[in-house]
Amino acid sequence: MRQLKSFISIIIATAVLSACSSSQDELKNIPSETLFEQGQTYLKEENYSSAVRYLEAVDGRFRDGQYREETQLSLMKAYYSMGEYYQAIEMAERFVRSNPYSDKMDYVYYLAGLSNVRLGDNFIQDFFKVNRSSRAVKSVRNAYGTFQTIVQHFPNSEYAVEAQQWMIYLKNRLAEHELEIVKYYQKRKAYVAMANRVEEMIRYYPDCKATVDALPYLQTAFEEMGIKDSAQETVNLIKSTKEQKFETPKRPEYREGF
Fold it and tell me: How far apart, in whole angstroms, are the C-alpha atoms of residue 150 and residue 113?
């Protein structure tokens, strides 16, 4: 029975690959401009799978110029709209390498940032899970870095304000995740790791509420390790931040139809 199932699976996979190959072969003799225009039509109709099929067929034919940029931008948008976020990011990275002077660069970074946010959505919504996938955490950090690029290098971009909002939100989510790790270390009495983690929070997330909330754990770690001077310095730091107020950052809305 298992052999029969495996045989059937192989037949189905072969048929699918053959169909895809045949489908792409049909497009080989179609002029590039026709493929491009049809891809754009499908994109406007939100028929993203067909748009990708035509745009992928023409991608690479244009060595430079507007057609190459528009093809890559359109593929990026189609991948994102289909939920193929890794492919959208890969295309964004390729675009940056191929078109370093494009006036669409802020858009590319913004779409790459949103793709990374989407990949990290589970982490963002449930950041109290200490053992969250490192890939998800990396995606959130990549999103933060990408939005930071927009704010620093494209301050007049239409995406700059939203990028700043995402940065604030993601930074606080990452800090809260770090605080949960600190608490985890405390339960395990891993005081060296606990102190190192809080010190990293102070370095990278100094203006986040979670970092202030982590200071008592740093004090405890120093006391348990017998480092009295550092423990007292931490006590003083806790006193100086006692009246500090923080606003809870709101999660930005995903921009649609761009």
Answer: 10
CB count, 10 Å around CB of 31?
A: 10
Region of 42 (left: φ > 0; alpha: ψ -120 to 50; beta: rest) is alpha
Output the pTM of the full model: 0.82
Of 249 and 220, the structure prediction assigns the larger pLDDT to 220
The residue with greater pLDDT, 2 or 35, is: 35
User: Per residue, what are the HEC states of 190-257?
Assistant: CHHHHHHHHHHHHHHCCCCHHHHHHHHHHHHHHHHHCCHHHHHHHHHHHHHCCCCCCCCCCCCCCCCC
Q: At what angle do helices 105-119 and 134-153 cross, to 10 degrees?
A: 160
Residue 184 is predicted with a pLDDT of 94
Residue 254 pLDDT: 87
Could you give the CA distance from residue 214 to residue 182 in angstroms, rounded to a whole number?
A: 8
| Residue of 100, 99, 98, 92 lying closest to 75 (CA atoms) | 92
Q: Is 50 exceeded by the pLDDT of residue 9? A: no
How does residue 86 score in pLDDT terms, banded at 50, 70 and 90?
Answer: very high
